[in-house]
Amino acid sequence: MAFKTIKRPKISLGERFYLQSILGGLWLTIRHLVLALLGKSRNKKELAGSGIGVTMQYPEARWDKHLPKYYRGAPVLVKGEDGRERCVSCQLCEFICPARAITITPGPIQEGPWGKVEKAPREFQIDMLRCIYCGMCEEACPEQAIFMSHNYLFTPTDKTQAIHNKAKLYELGGTRKGLVNKWNQYK
């Protein structure tokens, strides 16, 4: 078996001490510093800054206006136009959740003519500390009862505040107007 020896290239002193990389990083930092001192930094208007730096001033300025439509925030439950719960306790979102953050206890519907046919969640909980905001629960729901909201401000102080129950999820979600898109023949 033949071996081929490969000679390593000679490394200069500048390459050995990473001088080119260090000087490139310093040049970038100095350029940002000069632009900030002149008040010409990038994204000054979008980030509502003073021109010194490109950091968003968080409590005063928020990302709400800059979020794209496809942003996946916290999952919420929605009601239909008629005020009924859209969730029918099929438990598909619970089964598909990779983090096992959703817990559903099904129960019957008491009011209306749907009482013998449909179910509704007796308990619906999402552990927001376990949720990974993947959006699979939204995709699996045949009734479009669970949506990923644009809410990203979530700061619980203890674990009990991090578990959203059915009432909290409906409060955050509100009502959703329009047809259920999965059954809309014109979509």
From TrEMBL:
What's the protein's topology in the membrane?
Peripheral membrane protein
At the top of the EC hierarchy, this enzyme's class is: translocase
Q: What are the recorded GO MF terms, alphabetically?
A: 4 iron, 4 sulfur cluster binding; iron ion binding; NADH dehydrogenase (quinone) (non-electrogenic) activity; quinone binding
Instruction: List localization entries.
Output: Cell membrane
* Gene Ontology CC terms, in alphabetical order: plasma membrane
Keywords of this entry:
4Fe-4S, Cell membrane, Iron, Iron-sulfur, Membrane, Metal-binding, NAD, Quinone, Repeat, Translocase, Ubiquinone
Q: Which reaction does it catalyse?
A: a quinone + NADH + 5 H(+)(in) = a quinol + NAD(+) + 4 H(+)(out)
Recorded protein name is NADH-quinone oxidoreductase subunit I
Q: Which gene encodes it?
A: nuoI
